[in-house]
Task: structure prediction
Amino acid sequence: MEDAIVKLTSKEGETFDVPRKVAMMSKLVKDTFSDDDDEDDEEDETEVKEVPLPNVTAPVLKKVIEYCTHYQDEEMTPIQTPLKSGTLDELVQAWYANFVKVDRNMLFDLVAAANFMDIKPLLDLTCLAVSILIKGKSAQELRQMFNISAELSPEEQAEAQRENAVAE
Amino acid sequence: MLTLLDLPDDLFSESIFTYVPVTDLGRFGTVCRKFHNMRHLVDEELKARDTALIVSQQYPAESPILSILDYRERVLSFERCSTFAWEMTRQAIEHEACPSHEEETGCQCNPLESFPKLQDGLRGGKNYFFFVQFTAMNKLLWEGFLRDARTESDDYSPLISLFRNENVDIYQAFDGEEINNGRSIFASVDEMFSSDKLVP
Result:
């Protein structure tokens, strides 16, 4: 069973052979296996199974597999809240901090992939990286950074600012 | 390619928000309509943090921190002081590791230099105050809020005053020995700060 291979297929149809243990970090994959096992108890457990991932592109899936593979050798330390630092390097091990130093689009794709594939530690890490992007930025800076248009009415702006007065 | 706005709401409420400081969470609602409409999720996150705070700090039901502040103020104040304390700790550790720390010439690094200086009673434009518990031999002597400083005189510190107050033999009290001047430290300290319990 340890050497069993799972084929993960990306949105584009590209297939990645992944050791079962690595693939099983995804609860989606794990659930797929248990569903199959329920349906066919006689099935040969060494048979290579294929799991389609229609929401995950090949470059993102490659990164996800990289994460899950590394996790087998060095488990990511759980992220403690409240955070004691605002820099990734002081919150997770160096490899994981470097892993999420990617462009913003890739980061959001990784968040979505971790969510879809249900990989909790990857979701924690990528959401932490997003939160660090947000930290300390003004509303204007956030709009510029994430290309968001200001669409609030003056009344809504005033309401939100009034509610937030205690924090500023 | 996804953008920040494309991420589902539950990802914000269940994951991203849990790592965002209170100040930034509050600002979120001013960014755009999607986030403006998610303010109830921000509020839920703040309430969850408050619940966790009360449990982790073991505040008794009658603790003043539960009556003087609302949940937003409580988590904000805790976060602000916590950040302050973490930074002090980090710099203290750095200071101890400084190679010249034990030389007679003294240490050349300058710990705590980066802390915002008091100006008009504020540090970096923000109001700090501290929920303080004085204990000795596991006995709670006094608890309450201390101002960081008075607005009219930035050099005033309640903590410094406490140590200078000749009516309070605070060192003896902290050693757990009897206070021989006949006044309980609780009464002395409470009297001293009764007018200083802070409304943030």
Chain A touches chain B through 44 residues (CB under 8 Å). Chain A has one domain: 5-135. The beta strands of chain A are 5-9, 15-19, 49-52. Residues 5-135 of chain A form a domain with the Potassium Channel Kv1.1; Chain A fold (CATH 3.30.710.10).
